[in-house]
Design goal:
single chain, alpha+beta, five-stranded mixed β-sheet, 6 helices, 5 strands
Amino acid sequence: MSSLFSQEWMIEFGTAWNGEPDLANALAKINFNSAIGYGYPDEDAPRGFINVENGVVTMAGAYGGQELNWDLRASAADWEKWCSKGIGMMALGVAYTRCKLKFQVGDYGAMVKNPAMAGPFIKSFTVMGRVARS
């Protein structure tokens, strides 16, 4: 098992992402390309990073200064809760408005207004839950 957002965890997350049709295939349909960072709000930089090309994770690992299209931050407790239970649209909205999920980079409003992006975004939390962590 690996700790959340470690090099090993991010690689496993990328593999799980690519194996989930409701995520990779759905994003491929809209030619989704992004560099996404994941981490904690009290840190200067995200801990983990994935690069997505046409819906597929092509690179994953520890964050190393890459330019990001999305930088998602939340407390360790919230990440653990969402990894364990997933998150729905209503809970996502509450998490965002209560600043439990922060978008350091990226446009939350544009994402949730686009069902082709919002559905896969929600699914990514379920996929996170499939990756073992210590």
